[in-house]
Amino acid sequence: MTKSAFIKEVHDAEAMLYHVAKSILKNDADCCDAVQETLASVYKGILHKTTKYGLPTY
């Protein structure tokens, strides 16, 4: 997955990720942190592994 493809996937999934975080965490700052940490983890996984799967599978 290219960086630009990852960015597109993030934009497509951003609202859903925040909604899931908000259902678990009530504080907006905590939700933003959780989404950021999730996206960083996914990106690192994509960089270090050859995979055909994109963001929605995480």
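[next item in queue]
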Amino acid sequence: MENLSNLANALDYSDIIHLEFYVQEQLAKGKEICDLIIGDFDTQQFPMPDYLTAQIQQAYENKQNDYPPLEGVLSLRDEVAKQTKKRFNVSYNPDTEMLISGGARPLLYSAMLATVSAEDKVIYPVPSWNNMFYTTMCGGKHVPIETSEANQFLPTAEQLQAHISDARLITLCSPQNPNGSMFSKQQLSEICDMVVAENVRRRAINAKPLYVIYDQVYWMLTMQEVEHYHPASLCPDIKPYLIVVDAGTSFCRNRYSSWVGDRPTRSDSKNAGDPRTYRCNGSNGRATCHRGVISK
């Protein structure tokens, strides 16, 4: 692979995709498998509702098949802002604080590009989804935090505290992908309070802020009465440093769209380029979206 770029050679192949190839091979051999690897809906078992199919067809007949605005259709941004206010009591301006994209990955990667420069430290839990790839692509320094079953495979404020003094970004996901666990109110509050306190310290010395990307793509799929928490609901002071990615996995049908709230803005030289809060659907739950393969 010496003909490719240094970046391409630095990237590893996704283990999840490797496992999916294995599953497909076993299916081809006639084995009975419940494939939970990628997490997509089986459209034979979960077909698109007839109403939605009719609305999509009507949109084509109405010639609504051109490129949408780069930031997303305003009526959709407005509806997402209303839902966020209704469900989490967190306000976003759909004109200036919300973006729509085709899937969560572009938003997650773009959010990291907006905050991380070469050699900046990126803290992420292990296991987690795609953080190591995004960090490599941004040229950041990897700071993986190994999690354990004792904390439901989620990072704690105590674990993060040891690494934040010179870090640029913390990436979190709840419900967590791939294991499906989610932050309790206390766990998330402690992390938010820690980030706010760290940014108070940095403002005093005119240092760049510490940001948090919070992926909550699967928050609507929680089970067993486990409650999902939005960081800005628990700690409003974190909002200037928060990028929340929410996606169509739950709110839309078959992941047709994702959204992100609070686009990056430039306000002053000290906080130039501060992204405020991005919103997208992610996995939040102590008892949701566990992935694996069950075969006979």
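[queue empty]
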